[in-house]
Amino acid sequence: MNQLPQILYIEDNPDNQRLVQRVLSARGYQVVIAEDGPGGLALARTTHPALVLVDLGIPGLDGYETTTRLRSLAHMHNVPIIALTADASPGSRERALVAGCDGYLSKPIDARALPAQIAEFIEGRRERLPEVMETELLRSYNQKLVERLEARVRELTLANAQLQDLDRMKDQFLATLSHELRTPLTSLLGYLELFDRGMLGPLTPQQEEAVRVMRRSSEVLARQLNNLLYFQEVRSRSLNFVQLQPLDILRPLIAAARERAAQAQLQFEVLLSEMQPIEVDRSAFEHLVRNLLDNAFQYTEPGGRVRFIVRDEPTRLIIRVEDTGIGIPAGEQEKIFLPFYQVDHSLARGHPGSGLGLAIVRHIVEAHGGQIALRSAPGEGSAFTIAIPRRQVAGG
Ligand code: ADP
Fold this sequence. Notes:
Elements: E1 6-10, H1 14-26, E2 30-34, H2 37-46, E3 51-55, H3 63-71, E4 81-85, H4 92-99, E5 103-106, H5 114-123, H6 131-196, H7 205-236, E6 241-244, H8 246-263, E7 267-272, E8 278-281, H9 282-298, E9 305-312, E10 316-323, H10 357-367, E11 371-377, E12 381-389
Parallel strand pairs: 1-2, 1-3, 3-4, 4-5, 7-9
Antiparallel strand pairs: 6-8, 9-10, 10-12, 11-12
Helix pairs in contact: 2-3, 4-6, 6-7, 7-10, 8-9, 9-10
The site of adenosine-5'-diphosphate has 21 residues, from α9 and α10.
């Protein structure tokens, strides 16, 4: 079966849209409508219209510019583009032709004449300008386009400068806020730990439980703040590479993780190989491992297992954190590395977070020239694997 010839109509006025739709559908055309220039261009890319009707007065990218862009699409070179306009001022027809239109119909639309006019253009009718006039008009049309472009560049440059100012203010605000919050939080955490360890006198079981809850919540808060501060810091400073034994950094992190696993009723397995010293940024490396472990604990239910594996290879150090937790859907696995991105785990349970942890992890891994890989399946668990290359000594 033959497809109906398609007319692309670019028009923002609903009355005209309805009229043209009615008149042309009755004659066996299929009319697709775009409200503006960009919409028309998008439709033209995905469809193959037999003819385009474009209102020259559409807002934004106007009908002239839309026509010029349509013409630049390979499959639109020979498709008739007809201008529709209420502008009867001298020269408007010529301007439309020079922009790439093949014909010009004035508004109001003559419903009786329209189908025959459309058919003529589809059959090959083309209006042309005398060559001398075309050259002259093309020059001034190009001039106009360049001026518009210049104005847009100026606007964008200004907007960009304003955005950069706002971005700096935001950074400053976040940095100040997190510093201000961190100081009181540190003393809060310190005292809660003293209570928890029984160093400030005996507590009743109820008080012990309350202190434990307060401690956990404060630790979450501290983690968010650290990530926020670190996110600001790590983007603006260069790494400070030092040669160190990875175990020196890993040991205290593993000890803290064991404690946390016991509290959260999780199994925690550690598999370490012999490790040669490696050149890394100490605090960045520590932050990286802590974040991966924190996530594994945070997103694994009691009774589950977290595994921490470090393997030393001649050219790189491999760190792998596996959990049997809630897992990450395939469609989210790229996005979780974006700043502030969090998977909607509303079906599971509330996990307070900032969505910054993995953005920081990726930044640190890349700044070390390394790679990060993720394997995960919802309900089964996740495994984050990081490879940090050993730096080549120049001339060595
Ligand atoms: P945060 O944990 O602070 O929300 P992250 O950047 O560390 O931020 O993680 C982003 C998102 O990735 C989390 O909100 C969570 O949905 C998901 N995610 C990270 N690690 C895991 C994991 N081990 N298991 C399941 N989901 C995870």
